Amino acid sequence: MAFSLISRSLLRTSRELLERNMAVGAVSMLNGFVDIEMHPSHPTRTISTSTPALIRQTPQYLQTPVPPNSTVNPASHVYKKKSKHPKRQQDEESGSDTDSDDEFERKRQNMHKKYSQKGDSEFWRRKMRTLHRILDINRDGVISFDDFKLLHKRFTDLGHLNEELSAEFLHVMEETWKEQFGEITPYNLINADQFLTDLHHRLNDKKMFKTMGKFLPYLFKAVDYDHSGHLDLDQYKLFFRCLGLSNEDAAISFAVIDKNGDGQLSLKEFVHLGRQFFITEDESKISKMFWGPLIDH
Q: Which segments show compositional bias classed as Acidic residues (predicted)?
């Protein structure tokens, strides 16, 4: 009987030693892969893993995979993912809102830009009202083809267009009227509002846009009486007299558009400035003075 009791005791002791050695061996195998930090302030362990690993602290741990950067509660063996730092999370949420607002504003501006048209500025409308007043040669408040014929006659008589150039000029004026205002009749009268509407349409029509200012070379040739290919101040004054404008306005305009100050204006410069007057909405461009000082409203 005593021998039996001693044998059972030895077997129990050997079994306990075997289990203890197995547990120690399992933990040793995981050394270098798992970093366990004990927090004295609360009964949890923070377990950080750089590679997938299993923890053998009790036999149950061997059966439960540990997610990276997780918190282990030994009592329940429940793993919870660490929450972000409150300040960092707040900054990220705030930044996300800001990015969303910025993206919305960019889309809104792009949409406005996509559907906006040329000639929508008050500055452009002011220039066109100025031109309407100039082309109203008989000063009756509207533009008719009679005004275009008077303009043609002035540049032919006061200027130096020969018979061939004069006929070409009249043909261009007729084409311009038809393209822009329709039929040539005594009843087709264009007031300032209609003039702005028609030019706005032409400015935004790709085909018509290319023909804007095609009559300008004839105006240049009419006042280039010495056929030098350049206009000086006296010739520019002649240009203004054909338009019914004063020499004083001509001098002011010429001083502005003669950008390099050489006292001359080439055909290329003349046509460029004349076309730019129609198409630009940049108030800093010197072309705004091509037809003289702008009206106030």
A: 92-103
Three-class SS of 14-43: HHHHHHHHHHHHHHHHCECCEEEEECCCCC
Rg over alpha carbons for the chain, rounded to the nearest Å, is: 45
Give the C-alpha separation, 47 to 198, whole Å: 77
pLDDT band at residue 85 using 50, 70 and 90 as cut-offs: low
For residue 13, give both structure tokens.
Answer: 């002791």
Helices (H), the chain: 2-29, 86-115, 122-135, 145-157, 163-181, 192-203, 206-209, 216-223, 233-243, 247-257, 267-279
Tell me the residue length of the chain: 297
Antiparallel, parallel or unpaired: β 230-231 and 78-81: unpaired
Closest Cα partner for 217 from 276, 291, 151, 272? Answer: 272
CB 134 within 8 A of CB 197: no
Residue with tokens 């409203």: 297
Nearest to 125, CA basis, from 114, 133, 136, 113: 133
Contact 243, 177 (CB under 8 A): no
Mean pLDDT to the nearest integer, 118-147: 92
For the chain, give the mean pLDDT. Answer: 75
48 contacts 36 by C-beta, under 8 angstroms: no
Contacts of 245 (CB under 8 A, 6+ apart): 134, 291, 292
The DSSP code for 143 is: B
**pLDDT single digits (tens) 138-155:** 999 999 999 999 999 999
Spell out the domain ranges in the chain: 120-289
